Amino acid sequence: MVGSKWVFTIKYNSDGSIARHKARLVAQGFTQTHGIDYDETFAPIAKLNSIHVLLSIATNLDWELHQLDIKNTFLNGDVEKEIYMKAPPGFEENGKVCRLKKSLYRLKQSPRAWFRRFISTLNLLGYKQGHLDHTFTKHATNGSKTILIVYVDDIIITCDNYQEIKTLKGQVQ
């Protein structure tokens, strides 16, 4: 069972004025025990050489290059095992606990759960994962080619068909 807490932050505009107040529920993942609460930690990190190759292909073939930063990445994964969380402060009546079905920030399973879901989405869109790292390619029936690389929650995409990039962005953001 993991603990939980509320994290409150203030986002500021460039002039110093307050843009918005933000509150989020965060798992206290440091309370998890290896071998009991999680098997291993994980983060999808592409190799630097793969990034260099992608940039070289985009430059030499004059393909568009796009970068995505997936918002709330680790909230978008489904947890596989049963994980229980103590109710956050202010909601602890009668010692109740919550069973998590979705990932939370700081939960050690969150990156892997999100990446599993991300791979599933890419497979449905016709992408194939490379054997050596977190690189994906798609060869469409119309002859267009798309390459993307994942680095934690950032994605670099290059393609010879802008419509494919637009479609991909619509599916993963």
Give descriptors for this structure:
173 residues; 36% strand; alpha+beta; two-stranded antiparallel ribbon; 5-stranded antiparallel sheet; 3 helices
In words, what does this structure look like?
This protein is α+β, with helices and mostly antiparallel strands and about 170 residues long. The chain has one domain (about 5-170). It has 3 helices and 9 strands; from the N terminus they run E-E-H-E-E-E-H-E-E-E-E-H. The protein has helices spanning about 50-60, 110-125, 160-170; strands at about 5-10, 20-30, 65-70, 80-85, 95-100, 130, 135-140, 145-150, 155-160. The strands form 3 sheets. It has a 5-stranded antiparallel sheet, with helices on both faces. The chain has a two-stranded antiparallel ribbon with strand order 1-2. The longest helix has 15 residues, at about 110-125. It is globular, with a radius of gyration of 19 Å.
Derived from helix and strand composition plus strand pairing, the structural class reads: alpha+beta
**How big a fraction of the residues is strand?**
35-45%
What is the averaged pLDDT score? 79
User: What is the spatial order of strands in the main beta sheet?
Assistant: 3-9-8-7-6
Instruction: State the low-pLDDT regions, or none.
Output: none
Number of strands: 9
Give the radius of gyration: 19 Å
Q: N-to-C terminal Cα separation, in Å?
A: 31 Å
| Morphology | globular
- Major pleated sheet: 5 strands, antiparallel
The helix count comes to: 3
User: Which range best describes the helical content: under 10%, 10-25%, 25-40%, 40-55%, 55-70% or over 70%?
Assistant: 10-25%
**Domains (count):** 1
